[in-house]
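Sequence, please.
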């Protein structure tokens, strides 16, 4: 019984970076804004955005909720983030919840 690696979304890293930039926060600010200071660091966010690591499902859910999109949009390579995410904003849209 061989063990195959699972299929990975190829656009995930780019989408995560687009969400953070749209929210108008630094990588540290994202960690704080998502309420994950006890679990993540800026370095881990950097690895997500460079495609070196993938976030756990609960972290993806927090990204989706902060961006007000379905998590499916973030994960599915066939779906694109709404056009507004391609335009950086000047103020933070990240609200702690």
């Amino acid at each position: 019984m061989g063990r195959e690696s699972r299929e990975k979304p190829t656009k995930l890293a780019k989408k995560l970076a687009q969400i953070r930039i749209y929210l108008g926060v630094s990588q540290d600010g994202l960690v704080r804004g998502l309420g994950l200071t006890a679990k993540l660091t800026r370095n881990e966010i950097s690895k997500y955005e460079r495609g070196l690591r993938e976030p756990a499902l609960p972290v993806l859910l927090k990204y989706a909720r902060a961006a007000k999109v379905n998590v499916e949009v973030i994960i599915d390579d066939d779906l694109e983030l709404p056009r507004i995410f391609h335009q950086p904003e000047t103020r933070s849209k990240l609200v702690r919840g």
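The mean pLDDT is 88.
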